[in-house]
Each structure stands twice: as C-alpha cells, then as structure tokens.
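Readers of this paper often ask what the protein records in our data store actually look like. Such a record has a labelled line for the sequence and another for the backbone structure tokens. Nothing more is needed to write down the fold, since each code stands for a local backbone conformation. The record that follows is passed on verbatim for readers who wish to inspect the format.
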Amino acid sequence: MNSSSPTQNRPAKVQGNRRQSGSRLPPIMSVAGALAALLFSGGIADARRMDICRLTAKRADRSCQERVRSDHDLALAKCLNVADAATRKACQVQASAAFGDAKKTCKEQLAARQTVCEHVGGSPYDPVIDPRNFVTTIDNPYFPLVPGTTHTFVAQTPEGVVSQVVAVTHNTVVIQGVTCVEVHDVVTLNGEVEEDTLDWFAQDKDGNVWYFGENTRKISRGLTTSVEGTFAAGLNGDKAGIIMKAHPAVADFFRQEFVLGTGEDAEEVVGLNQSVTVAYGSFDRCVEVQETTALEPEEVVHDFYAPGIGPVLSITMPTNERLELVSVTTQ
C-alpha cells in the first residue's frame, strides 16, 4: 500500500533454510528443485517442514542479483556506443558504481526478508480467504472506513509541502469473492499530483481489517510515469495482508501485503497507549505500529492510530518527517 496508513498482513518475517542431517541432494538438484519434487510426489508434510520463508527470500535474492547483472550489461552496452573515449570511460565508471550500489541493495533486501522470517516462521504465506468470513462494514475502532469520510494529512519536507487526501468512497470491488471498500488516496507535492491510488479493504467477522490490493499511478506533470505497486489479491501469486488487527497487542507481527519484488510491507505493533498531538487535535490510547518493507530496508515508518479516527500520524525514519492529520470531513 502506498499511503502511510497500514495495510493487512504486512509481510511477516520468515525463517531460514535448514537442511536435515543425513539428507543429500544430487549435485544437479537445487533446494527449490527438491521442494518442487516433494510437492509433486505428495510429500506435503515434508515440504512444510522446510523453511519456505527463507527459501522464498533466497529465490527473491537470486532474481534480484540476476536483474542487477542484466541491467549492468545493458548499461555497458550503451557505453560502448559512445564515440568519445573520455565520455565512454565516464559512462563505464558510472555503470560500475550503479552496479555496486544495486548489489548492495540486493544484499540488504535479503537480510530484511530473513528478519521477517525470524518473526513469522518458515511456513508458506498463503492465507485462506473465505468470502463467508467477511462482513460489508469496516468498523474496527483503529481503522474505521465510513463511506463519505475524508481524512487530509500534511507533511513539511525538504522538497516542499506534501498533502495526502484519503477519501472513503461509496464504491466497492469484489476480490477473491470478498466485497471490498474502495478508498481514493491522492498525494500532492506543492499542489502537483504525484500519486493517485485506489486501495481496497475488507473486514473479517473477527474484526481484522485486510488489505486486498490497489490500483496506483505515479504522476509527473500530469502524465502517468509508473503503475508499479498495482496488484489484486489472488492474481499472479499476490496475496492479501492485514492492515489492522481486531485486538492489537504489543509484538503482533503481520504482513500487510505479499507482492514479491513490488510490495512486501510488514507491520509490528510496538505500543498501545500512546498519546499523540497533531494539527487536528490530541489523542490518547493510540496504537503505534512500526511499518517496514524488505524493498527499502533503510526506511522505517511509525504509524499512530487513534480509536474512532484511524491513522492520525506517520513518522518516517531516519528523516523524522511527520505526516499529520489536519482535517476530517464527512458527506
């Protein structure tokens, strides 16, 4: 989810890959190949004993490394077609520097995914979505979504004033048989739209609020520059996650979404009785959630949710930028 507010089942932490003693694989068979063989042969119980989380992290790392090498080769190919020797050399140096930075990022992402595994264990992440287990109203006190309600947030940044307008629409979208509430989220910088997103949420009968997907556009000068981040649970292996538990408790850790390589947000509840003051007012008994993503390991967001209101403050680290609730309107 691109907005600062939490999303369902943020990637939970997965655990490492441990090979049982005495089990030897043929040289040509990879760990992933062994897993596939187990599944195909019906060895589901054996497969479950494997650390799927760390296997997933390693496969994702391999994909990252291959992509980095491919990008480097393409960059060097472009450099070869620069006629001027000095300019060509500068191009190659820049490509090598970018290659090193990208390899470092892959390494950091692997470490972040493995940290998630430490929290959530080694089981596959495959939540069962039964439409009969969902209701049509989202009234979780820490994440209520009442159609016609609009929350506006503002942050002062080095680039200027960021405004985020989050409007709960009267529209619904059916995903995996579940009727989801559609939320329209628009981010502007100094009055210019930078991001325009439709988010989809649903609440189960226990009161947990799930995040089922989004349709997002990044915009520059009125033109769409990217739709990266768009997903719908149940398509292309993408899966829903939890944005807010019914009864949050400190140390709760959950995935907000599971979109490998694109959206891997995870959340951990770190406080329950926090006091927060923002432009819109002062609030007690706030739930504090730490939000991380394996794709940007250096960035950590602390979100604060007030009872009866929902998100009221997001603090992004290490910049310490504050996105504060400034108004709530209803139609």
User: Anything to note?
Assistant: The radius of gyration is 22 Å. The helical segments are 31-40, 44-49, 52-80, 85-120. The first helix runs from residue 31 to 40.
